[in-house]
Q: What sequence folds into this?
């Protein structure tokens, strides 16, 4: 295959116009020649390996805060997104691939329509454009992942990349908390709450890999430990509440065995105990600082939530416009014990969307999450029906991650983060591509019990 490619006249005609200028540059300006080689490699990846480009974007998203180069408006993550869209468009045109549709795609389109309508009727459309573009980028990310992820193996590959990327980010966050004496771990994301949100959403996926990939069990065990440690170091109560919701859900629906729940609790307590053993003075100081303002934080969030509801009452259909909660908050947020600051957040994803994008946007966003959950439930039932134990575990882990995202979203404004949109895209594959596995012997009884539990849940 390689020999035919090298002997091909077409390959020569394409390579010669590229190689000759690079050779001249190498003699005159070696630095520019290296840059040219990098551009050529990037173009080859865009043209031939769109799957690698998608994985690069998935890995970069947890690092968005540190990848704002050359600027916040034109960052590495956004450039990767544009390149991925171009690569998908080229592949779709060459292969005449049909668009993959999904219930989540319909809800995402409806949500984006509501965002554009909100910008149109915003009191200051120019100010709303930036956040509208942020919504658009995440919807495009969802769309591209939906089109480019087609098999369960590709879903697992995305899960591995995201877990590993979040784990490296956890190491950075822990280093800042322990070595640099930061008040709270934040890693490559400036806001500790946003950082904690990504860590807890990645944790169920890391646990899935720990349970299913025995050859790499040590790697995934380390990942789980670091993700737990980084989450605790953020001191984010909203993220911990989302993580705590897994236990009653798993037990009540029989999604997670009681032994699994107990092991999870033991793991969290063990990491916390180890941290206090090694860094007791640091942790006591941070917890003392956090406890002094805990009551004020609760009162502040109640005031922000009430202010968001007043905004929604004033402009129920289209909201005050994307990104305008901060500008409008002074007229709606009352009795707040903490100064609002320059750009306050609602600390509630759903009320944030409701206040800024209106009822239409709220319905679209919630409908998207419900559709994602139903697809994952459908995928789990299919996996149980064909005896695909690993597929059942994958669907359960993604449901757990989505549950953490949804519950934590009640206390944090996280509509601009990866988990909602990534899980919504991957849920379509999990629902539609189960793997048939022949099951014999003692596991038949186990599968029968699982089918009963799935029908009940």
A:
């Amino acid at each position: 295959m390689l020999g035919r490619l090298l002997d091909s006249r077409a390959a020569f005609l394409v390579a010669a116009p590229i190689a000759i200028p690079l050779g001249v540059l190498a003699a005159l300006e070696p630095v520019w020649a290296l840059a040219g080689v990098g551009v050529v490699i990037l173009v080859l990846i865009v043209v031939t390996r769109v799957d690698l480009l998608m994985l690069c974007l998935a890995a970069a998203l947890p690092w968005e805060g540190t990848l704002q180069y050359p600027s916040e408006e034109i960052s590495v993550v956004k450039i990767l997104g544009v390149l991925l869209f171009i690569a998908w468009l080229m592949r779709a045109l060459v292969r005449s691939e049909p668009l993959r549709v999904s219930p989540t795609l319909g809800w995402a389109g409806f949500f984006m329509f509501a965002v554009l309508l909100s910008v149109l009727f915003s009191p200051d459309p120019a100010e709303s454009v930036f956040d509208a573009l942020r919504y658009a980028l995440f919807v495009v990310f969802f769309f591209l992942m939906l089109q480019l992820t087609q098999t369960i193996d590709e879903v697992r590959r995305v899960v591995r990349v995201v877990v590993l990327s979040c784990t490296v980010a956890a190491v950075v966050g822990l280093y800042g908390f322990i070595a640099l004496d930061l008040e709270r771990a934040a890693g490559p994301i400036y806001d500790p709450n946003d950082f904690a949100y990504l860590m807890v959403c990645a944790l169920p996926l890391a646990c899935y890999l720990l349970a299913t990939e025995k050859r790499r069990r040590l790697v995934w065990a380390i990942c789980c430990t670091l993700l737990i440690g980084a989450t605790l170091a953020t001191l984010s109560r909203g993220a911990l509440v989302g993580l705590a919701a897994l236990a009653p859900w798993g037990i009540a629906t029989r999604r997670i065995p009681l032994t699994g729940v107990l092991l999870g609790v033991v793991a969290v307590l063990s990491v916390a105990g180890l941290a206090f053993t090694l860094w007791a003075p640091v942790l006591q100081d941070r917890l003392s600082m956090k406890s002094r303002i805990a009551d004020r934080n609760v009162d502040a969030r109640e005031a922000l939530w009430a202010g968001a509801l007043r905004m929604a009452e004033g402009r129920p259909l289209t909201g005050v416009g994307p990104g305008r909660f901060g500008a409008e908050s002074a007229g709606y947020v009352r009795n707040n014990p903490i100064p609002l600051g320059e750009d306050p957040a609602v600390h509630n994803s759903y009320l944030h969307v409701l206040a800024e994008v209106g009822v239409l946007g709220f319905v679209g966003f919630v409908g998207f999450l419900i559709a994602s959950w139903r697809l994952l439930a459908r995928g789990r039932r299919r996996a149980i029906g064909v005896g695909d134990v690993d597929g059942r575990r994958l669907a359960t882990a993604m449901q757990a991650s989505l549950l953490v995202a949804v519950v934590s979203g009640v206390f944090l404004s996280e509509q601009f983060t990866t988990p909602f949109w990534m899980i919504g895209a991957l849920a379509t594959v999990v629902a539609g591509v189960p793997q048939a596995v022949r099951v014999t012997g003692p596991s038949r009884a186990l599968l029968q019990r699982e089918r009963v539990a799935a029908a009940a849940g």
Observations:
- The chain has one domain: 101-456.
- The chain has 19 helices and no strands.
